[in-house]
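Final report, Chapter 2: Outcomes

The project's central promise was a pipeline that accepts a single protein chain and returns its three-dimensional structure in a standardized token representation, suitable for archiving and comparison. That pipeline is now operational. To close this chapter, we reproduce one record exactly as it appears in the project archive, with the input sequence first and the structure output second.
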Amino acid sequence: MTNVIEMKEKYEGKYRGKIEKATKLFLDGAKISMVDENNIMTALTLGLIQGLKYKGNFKRGAKTAFTGMAVIGFGNGLVCVIRNWDQVKQS
């Protein structure tokens, strides 16, 4: 059991900084894209189109708008991590 604990501590010590840096970059990229007016308008347009497509279903349109923002934020977060991969590897 102590061997497992030692391995866990060694693993956490070795990769903890890299994981924290990548997580911070991902969240920063996602936050920036969530407040970007172009992304907000794109998500709202998707929601409006989807809502009107189904006889004015507001609930479906709101879900589509929220999902669109989440997908755009996730994609931009990944792009941010990929662009700054050298910083992640150095930490």
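Archive annotation: The chain is about 90% helix and 0% strand.
This record, like all others produced under the grant, will remain available to the consortium after the project formally closes.
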